[in-house]
Design goal:
- The chain is an alpha+beta fold and 459 residues long.
- It contains 16 helices and 13 strands.
- Strands 1, 2, 3, 4 and 7 form a five-stranded antiparallel beta sheet that branches. A four-stranded mixed beta sheet has the order 6-11-10-8, covered by helices on one side. It has a two-stranded parallel sheet with strand order 5-13.
- Helix 1 runs antiparallel to helix 2 and helix 3 runs parallel beside helix 6.
- The N and C termini lie far apart (51 Å).
- The N terminus is likely disordered.
Length: 459
């Protein structure tokens, strides 16, 4: 019986045709911006953003991942644009079985099916760069096979060109933040996500970092069934985090406390963060019918920081805690902010006090009272944007892109869970006895064991 027609075979050429239309759309908006500036007219950003989002919405794939990322960075794009982009779904239509077979054959050879006891035809999950199939190994283990979509390297490069167009467009709108460093960081991290061998190494790093933490599970990589475009792991059974929103306070607090440790411990002790704290990247495993801990599922977006950056985070915290302005300024300079005027420092402190706020008071509290997960950080971002607008563009060091994004994402998780914890106590436990040299030593050790370069080469 002949195989069904492969409907995906022309997907990449169709994608490029859509890119051409998006480029035309952006070009039209750019022309409007230029004309408005020349003749002193007001731009209808809301209308332009809606037109652009409509065009982008058909692309799916990596650009949607980038678009959703941009929606979480204050003033990376005008607020009307981020509102529209936040509505877009970072998911691609799944590959059909005929295409999956060809992709698997390309990764594991013509007899690839014989290497599994069973392999699910339908994807268990679909994402921006690939899809996950549930399989069974010959030893009975349940496996998760993450298979990258075809032509993703070319698609990512095309997407990043669109990103540069977006940023170029924004720079014509008198932005409060110079986006050049942001573009550099996003491009580097998205390109890294294409390399599943690198993601496997990230998993090895997290296995070492969290090996003594029973409440956090990291998948096992099956090396003989993995390549740079196929990542096969042990399947981690769990339920979505939001399934536990209506559980008792103790259960919700336990999950939030575990999430706090999963994020802050790798950062404060090893200079490593999980840069994509998205609800879909965690599930909850249970014991005796109660939530026991979390599964960490995705390691494509891992950021490794120089120890000096981590030291700056601790310095800024202690400076804010002790109202020590000299220490606060030293922290900003440690991060690479330049030519800091008093007015700029005051604006940066608005954002810093928002991010650090829950960590500065020694009491049980929510991460933010009376704020929804969707609105977390929006008000403060608007204040920062408005203040910087009057002071001129500020160049933000590229390391901040995923640090800020992750902090906002983590806060959103705490709000979803309605957690009430002593964040001051939790944070101070993580930075007790902090020593930047020890962080560097630990980082070098875990990265070396996993076959990765140090933070100095991460950017």
């Amino acid at each position: 019986m002949p195989e069904p027609k492969d409907r995906e075979s022309n997907r990449f050429s169709a994608r490029m045709g859509r890119y051409a239309r998006v480029g035309t759309n952006m070009g039209g908006i750019a022309a409007k911006v230029a004309g408005a500036r020349l003749f002193g007219m007001e731009l209808d950003n809301a209308k332009n953003a809606a037109e652009l989002a409509e065009a982008l919405g058909g692309l799916k794939g990596p650009l949607m991942k980038v678009a959703q990322l941009l929606s979480t960075i204050p003033d990376a794009l005008p607020p009307e644009y981020t509102t529209e982009l936040a509505k877009l779904q970072a998911s691609a239509p799944p590959m059909g079985w005929a295409f999956v077979k060809r992709r698997m054959r390309a990764e594991l050879g013509p007899d690839w099916q014989k290497r599994f006891e069973a392999f699910g035809r339908e994807p268990a999950a679909a994402a921006s760069l690939g899809q996950v199939h549930r399989a069974t190994g010959h030893d009975g283990r349940v496996l998760a096979c993450k298979l990258q979509y075809p032509d993703m390297a070319s698609a990512v490069e095309a997407d990043l060109k669109q990103l540069q167009m977006l940023f170029s467009l924004h720079r014509r709108m008198s932005p409060a933040i110079d986006t050049r460093e942001i573009a550099k960081e996003i491009s580097a991290r998205v390109r890294e996500e294409l390399d599943y061998a690198r993601e496997a190494a990230h998993i090895a790093v997290y296995q070492q970092i969290l090996k003594d933490t029973d409440a956090i599970r990291v998948p096992e990589v099956i090396a003989e069934l993995s390549t740079r475009r196929l990542l096969t792991m042990g399947w981690l059974t769990g339920r979505p985090l939001l399934d536990f929103k209506e559980h008792g306070q103790d259960d919700r607090n336990h999950l939030a406390r575990t999430m706090f440790h999963a994020w802050w411990h790798p950062f404060s002790h090893f200079g490593v963060i999980h840069g994509d704290p998205h609800l879909g990247n965690y599930t909850v495993f249970e014991e005796g019918g109660a939530p026991a801990g979390i599964n960490l599922l995705d390691y494509g977006c891992i950021r490794v920081f120089p120890e000096a950056f981590v030291e700056g985070v601790v310095k800024l915290y202690r400076g804010l805690l002790e109202d020590d302005n000299d220490r606060v300024v030293a922290a900003y300079e440690r991060w690479g902010f330049k030519d800091l005027k008093k007015e700029v420092i005051e604006v940066l402190n608005i954002w810093a006090r928002f991010i650090y706020g829950p960590l500065l008071t020694d009491r049980v509290r929510s991460i933010a009272d009376g704020v929804s997960a969707a609105e977390y950080g929006r008000k403060e971002a608007f204040r920062v944007h408005s203040a910087l607008k009057a002071l001129g563009p500020l160049t933000v060091p590229q390391e901040f892109v995923f640090m800020d994004r992750a902090a906002i994402g983590l806060g959103g998780v705490f709000l979803h869970l309605r957690a009430e914890l002593n964040f001051f106590q939790l944070f101070n436990e993580q930075i007790e006895g902090f020593d930047a040299k020890i962080v560097r030593s630990r980082q070098d050790a875990v990265l070396s064991t996993a076959g990765l370069a140090g933070a100095s080469n991460a950017a």
